[in-house]
């Protein structure tokens, strides 16, 4: 990537956007460290940290032993010493060995210390399925972290957000679980204007990504692309869908959501994670609490079934695709 | 147990192991004695406060005074400590008002001191979790260039405290691996007090704990944890090794939990009284007192002054504990985040408004 300060527009993938964002954060603040399994010489199994160790050295891009609790636990100590560690969990299903450190230590350190000990840590997790992977490589654990006070949880959905959101998460003084839709890493390209004067949207803000009048479709991470495709298909049949990229899962930014639902009277929430007690349940509850009289239909949820993630030959059946989103839209409109 | 480093026998005889011997002047010896007496007083007062209902719980250190004072006094100002929830003696050596230790056990806060200012982390309840924090902190020191410079006021190290029970935890074993891999300046200080609540050390390890270090690739040493001189000497050497950039050491302080695990525990259900009686003969304070008296290093006036000092400390703890105010109800919402969320602000406002509905009807009850 070109150095910060020069004005260039590039066609980049999500992977390159994240890489460029990490690079710029490391240039801007020498307390920023990257650590995880294979993040150094290899550049990460998805190449998100490609080239960073070469340019910033082994003290700042740290190849760690294969121990997730160890990675997050030592990152706690580095944060207490004044560093801003960016931890990579190699795959969603591998975060659980670190779950205790994340929930009991990372999330509670600021509270426990009455604000004396800050925990400016980013835990990057490639999440979601659709890549034909073996077990434990396709999971969506976001609700487990969004349920934990003290953590903030965000999910990027596109290359430009990847570039800005990772920098904003690193600048945040609270611990941020940063979810990256792994099947989007190398998929679509977008124009990134690497302009230091650009003002990105705030990190903890949802965003209307397509205007519409009939049904509000709420999505994040990998489902944003599917929701947009669903809206396109629905338009051909005369249905006007509004699509909102939630972007932040904890805190939730309900303002744009509520404004939209008050207008459309209908909402469908979609995520890859299991529906039972997933983000959709919380969002449906909040919509019901805040705009009960605007609703023309119950808030519907479209997500993964309440099963373990299936063997990959069946994952297309498990994942909420365009047709399942449209099915929910139809049920909402027919209610 | 010929591998046990000892400088002062249970009978109060000075011995001189070639690798770890050290001379101590009278002032230092009296200081160790004073520290241990005062720390034991903190422990007995806190136990009594729990019995009187002023504390919800207390984790006793009775019998571990030498291990903690030895380890604590070996520190330099710039060294950093990551404690369990039982390091009251080490906290005392870091200049923490013992009253600040009580808040956690009284339920008014989760820790009343500033870890950065005192170079002493918060008590950690989840067994062994802090050992990883210690290694990460030590990795930070490496990056800050405060290791191996040769400047005694600059070079620093970390002490990770844990116990024999924690040695079975994954976090502790991962901490060993990370420390070894990065050659981190950390001393793993394990107080093997023989008991993890009701589970004896035999349930945790088939070999002496200090020998585990070898498998991870750094030295381990077992010291008589009831001998303050040996604990001090061994910890000081391990800390210097770390500060010099030579990497981690495991120190196993071999001691005994003479009290219960905590005030909720009943050790008579699982261990023999004879065992306790045996260890009482190895009491860390008694042996130093024998030595000091035999060599005329303390007199009655010193001991009387110390007793007065301990009494004053007890008074400070009793009165201070009872006067400790409950946190205001809205403290529930404080410091969840460095940058508070709108969601939480709204919840706090809702909580305040909800309480005010009571205030309108029952003002006295709310004020109480």
Task: Give structural notes.
The complex is a heterodimer of chains A (335) and B (368). Chain A has helices at residues 14-28, 52-56, 68-80, 99-106, 109-112, 142-146, 159-171, 223-236, 255-264, 279-290, 315-318, 322-334, and strands spanning 9-12, 32-36, 61-63, 84-88, 122-127, 152-155, 176-181, 190-193, 207-210, 215-219, 241-245, 248-250, 267-274, 300-304. Chain A is an alpha/beta fold. Chain A has 2 domains: 9-193, Thiamin diphosphate (ThDP)-binding fold, Pyr/PP domains (Rossmann fold); 207-334, Rossmann fold. Chain A has a 7-stranded mixed beta sheet, sandwiched between helices. A 5-stranded mixed beta sheet of chain A has the order 9-11-10-13-14, sandwiched between helices. Chain A is globular, with a radius of gyration of 20 Å. Chain B has 2 domains: 26-323, Thiamin diphosphate (ThDP)-binding fold, Pyr/PP domains (Rossmann fold, 3-Layer(aba) Sandwich); 329-367. Chain B has helices spanning 26-51, 65-73, 88-93, 98-106, 115-118, 129-144, 170-182, 201-204, 212-216, 228-243, 273-280, 284-294, 300-323, 342-361, 363-367, and strands spanning 80-82, 158-163, 186-192, 195-196, 199-200, 220-224, 249-254. Chain B has a 5-stranded parallel beta sheet, sandwiched between helices. Chain B has a two-stranded antiparallel sheet with strand order 4-5. Chain B is globular. At the A-B interface, helix 3, helix 4 and helix 5 of A face helix 6, helix 7 and helix 14 of B.
């Amino acid at each position: 990537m070109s150095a910060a300060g020069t004005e260039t527009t590039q066609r980049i993938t999500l992977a390159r956007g994240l890489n460029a964002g990490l690079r710029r954060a490391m240039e801007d603040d020498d307390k920023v460290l990257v650590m995880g399994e294979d993040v150094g010489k290899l550049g990460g199994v998805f190449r998100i940290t490609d080239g960073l160790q070469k340019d910033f050295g082994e003290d700042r891009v740290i190849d760690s032993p294969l121990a997730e609790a160890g990675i997050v636990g030592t990152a706690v100590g580095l944060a207490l010493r004044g560093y801003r560690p960016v931890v990579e969990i190699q795959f969603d299903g591998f975060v659980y060995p670190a779950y205790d450190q994340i929930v009991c230590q990372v999330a509670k350190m600021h509270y426990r210390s009455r604000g004396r000990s800050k925990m400016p840590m980013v835990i990057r997790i490639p999440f979601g399925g659709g890549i034909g992977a073996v077990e434990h490589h396709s999971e969506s654990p976001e609700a487990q972290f969004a349920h934990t006070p003290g953590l903030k949880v965000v999910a990027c959905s596109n290359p430009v957000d990847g570039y800005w959101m990772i920098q904003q998460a690193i600048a945040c003084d609270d611990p941020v679980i940063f979810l990256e839709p792994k099947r989007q890493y190398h998929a679509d390209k977008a124009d990134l204007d690497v302009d230091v004067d650009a003002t990105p949207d705030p990190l903890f803000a949802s965003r209307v990504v397509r205007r519409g009048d009939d049904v509000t479709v709420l999505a994040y991470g990998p489902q944003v692309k599917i929701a947009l495709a669903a809206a396109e298909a629905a338009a051909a049949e005369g249905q006007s869908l509004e699509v909102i990229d939630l972007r932040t899962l904890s805190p939730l930014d309900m303002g744009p959501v509520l404004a939209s639902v008050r207008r459309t009277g209908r909402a469908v929430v979609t995520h890859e994670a299991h529906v039972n007690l997933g983000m959709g349940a919380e969002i449906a509850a909040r919509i019901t609490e805040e705009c009960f009289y605007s609703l023309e239909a119950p808030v519907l949820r479209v997500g993964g079934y309440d099963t373990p993630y299936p063997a990959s030959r069946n994952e297309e059946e498990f994942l909420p695709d365009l047709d399942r989103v449209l099915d929910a839209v139809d049920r909402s409109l027919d209610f | 147990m010929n591998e046990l480093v000892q400088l002062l026998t249970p009978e109060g005889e000075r011995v001189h192991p070639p690798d770890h011997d050290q001379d101590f002047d009278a002032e230092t010896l009296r200081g160790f004695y004073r520290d241990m007496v005062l720390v034991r007083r903190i422990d007995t007062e806190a136990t009594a406060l729990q019995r009187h209902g002023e504390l919800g719980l207390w984790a006793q250190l009775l019998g571990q005074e030498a291990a903690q004072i030895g380890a604590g006094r070996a520190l330099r100002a710039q060294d950093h400590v990551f404690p369990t929830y039982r390091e009251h003696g080490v906290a005392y050596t870091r200049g923490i008002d013992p009253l600040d230790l009580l808040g956690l056990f009284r339920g008014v806060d989760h820790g009343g001191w500033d870890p950065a200012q005192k170079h002493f982390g918060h008590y950690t309840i989840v067994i062994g979790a802090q050992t990883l924090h210690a290694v990460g902190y030590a990795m930070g020191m490496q990056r800050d260039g405060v290791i191996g410079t040769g400047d005694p006021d600059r070079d620093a190290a970390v002490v990770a405290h844990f116990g024999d029970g924690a040695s079975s935890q994954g976090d502790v074993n991962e901490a060993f691996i990370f420390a070894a891999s990065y050659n981190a300046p950390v001393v793993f200080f394990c107080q093997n007090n023989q008991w993890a609540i009701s589970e004896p050390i035999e349930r945790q390890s088939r070999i002496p704990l200090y020998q585990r270090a070898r498998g991870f690739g750094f030295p381990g040493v077992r010291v008589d944890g009831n001998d303050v001189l040996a604990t001090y000497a061994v910890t000081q050497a391990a800390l210097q090794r770390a500060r010099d950039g030579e990497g981690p050491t495991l120190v196993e302080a071999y001691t005994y939990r003479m009290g219960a695990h905590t005030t909720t525990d009943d050790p008579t259900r699982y261990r023999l009284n004879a065992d306790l009686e045996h260890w009482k003969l190895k009491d860390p304070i008694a042996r130093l007192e024998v030595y000091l008296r035999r060599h005329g290093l303390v007199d009655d006036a010193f001991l009387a002054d110390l007793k007065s000092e301990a009494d004053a400390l007890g008074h400070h703890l009793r009165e201070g504990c009872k006067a400790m105010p409950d946190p205001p109800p809205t403290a529930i919402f404080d410091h969840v985040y460095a940058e508070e969320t709108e969601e939480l602000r709204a919840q706090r406002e809702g909580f305040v408004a909800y309480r005010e509905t009571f205030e309108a009807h029952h003002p006295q009850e709310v004020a109480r």
